[in-house]
Amino acid sequence: MVMASSAGHVSTARTTQYLLRIAVSLVGIAAVAWGAWSMPLFRAEASPHLVAARILQGDTFKVERLFITARQAEAVAIQPFCNPTALHDLVVLRLAIFRQAIGTTDRTLFESSYDALNDAAREALGCSPADSFVWLTLFWIDVARHGLQAENANYLRISYASGPNEAWIALWRNQLAFTLFDRLPADLADDAVGEFIKLVNTRQLYWQTGKIFENASPDGQHRITEHLKTADDVAREAFLIALHRKGVDVAVPGQLPSEPRPWR
Questions:
Q1: Alpha-carbon distance 151 to 143, whole Å?
Q2: Which of 56, 81, 179, 196 is least enclosed, having the fewest CB within 10 Å?
Q3: Whole-prediction pTM value?
């Protein structure tokens, strides 16, 4: 009886080891298969992603290069699963193409670039509905085509809600908002002023915010000036100095004028 029991234990142990080896082998095969399938996809995605990142940093590319890279991004984006990164990159690339098309007399290029950007933006939002940058892109191109309307004003509203503290988006959003400031609904006008103060409070974007202030309507400038008293003291002073260097002097209500500085 003891020998039979021992033999049974040995047999069970061997079976367990055998099944474990099969499981490990299957995991290894699956890993190899995944690598063989995914590596070409990752390589294809790398170039569009790097180009899109450089565009967002301010780099420019020839339109021919942008078209090639956009086609690469599309090849990644049409995979059966939702790829928010690839779709976001495609919007950035299509936006860069559209911006170049604006400066040409080629109406066909302009229309095709607009349609491709509009399609890419809507597809990206279907995959990632909280992408603040894509909502802002959709707002801009829809206003350019149809003028400011309740529907596209809501695109701007969603952009504020989904990305309230992303300075790289906020700069473009604030510029667009103050371009349309006198026609914005009251809540969006308030959002624009509040975001402007946030940008000033970064203590880094004085040149950019100064340019937005210069290009704002008189009512927009008045609203900004009223709310500057809520800004950080150091940031407000530096912003006013930056404006002074541009030849613009602003008196903030309720704040004593700053003492003249040697560098003024």
A1: 10
A2: 81
A3: 0.78
Find the radius of gyration of the CA atoms of the chain: 28
Is residue 253 within 8 Å of 226, Cβ to Cβ? yes
112 vs 92: CA distance, rounded Å: 16
Confidence band for 216, pLDDT divided at 50, 70 and 90: very high
Tell me how far apart the alpha carbons of residues 178 and 79 are, in angstroms, rounded to a whole number.
39
Angle between helices 132-146 and 107-127 (to 10 degrees): 140
User: Contact 88/131 with Cβ under 8 angstroms?
Assistant: yes
Query: How far, in Å, are 42, 64, 78, 86, 90 from residue 83 at the CA level?
Result: 12, 25, 9, 6, 11
Statement: residue 48 has pLDDT above 70 = yes
Give the Cα separation of 215 and 177 in Å (integer): 11
Contact 180, 142 (CB under 8 A): no
Which of 230, 229, 235, 222 has the alpha carbon at shortest distance from 256? Answer: 229
- pLDDT of amino acid 81: 82
Q: How far apart are CA 2 and CA 258, in angstroms?
A: 98
